[in-house]
Amino acid sequence: MLAPFWHSWDMGFSIDLLPASADNYIYLVSDVALGLAMVVDPGDADVVKRALQKKDLHLALILNTHHHSDHTAGNAKLQHDYGAPIIGPSKEAHRIEGISRSVDEGDFVTFSDLRGHVIETPGHTMGSLSYYFPELKALFSGDTLFSLGCGRLFEGNGAQMWSSLLKLRALPDDTQIYCGHEYTERNAGFALMLDKDNEALKARAEEVAALRKKGLPTLPVSLAQEKAINPFLRVDDPAFQKMLQKNGFPTDVDPAAIFGSLRAAKDRFTK
Description:
This protein is α/β, with parallel strands linked by helices.
């Protein structure tokens, strides 16, 4: 398993990327001065505990983006060992054991001096949430928005996911995306098939390949960059629609329908 990766800010907070399972990321947000931490989607309690012990931190809060076990399996052990409350989507509260507070669109979550905006982003699951912390310029998007991709539609539909992505696309361009999985290299292959002449996309794909060859993460990534090269954020862009048309996608329909056909094609993509 890869070692944790650390990103820090002058304001006294840090975000650790903790690899777990085959390709999950758990995120540990720390207030260095207070010795407190918040964890996002702890699918493995032991991975989190090792990071807490290494940095001499106490866990104060657990955030869940959705109910899938690879994002929640560590909840109970961490709550037992640290007494940390669990915050998660109200629409999935019945599916997250031990949840302390359920939240909806427009609610806020607080950790230390940070105030996170709760954004409902259904599609992957019916109750999926994303958390945006403007002070950190950080978006924890779970399995909704990935670098160069988006989540599978396990419970929701294409119209719901497209609406969710529009919400995230509207955030400030300098937002840094912290998503739930290391899928970027696979996503790049699909994106290049659609838009092989996009120089920014080719540069990103080369960067991603080099990072993965070294065992390094491809995250975080800026929203500005994703808006230019992520196919799932561009289905309403006339220039990109021309590329889709060349690849046999119908473009004389509304963007949600274009998105749905693109997501279905990604599900079939095997290269």
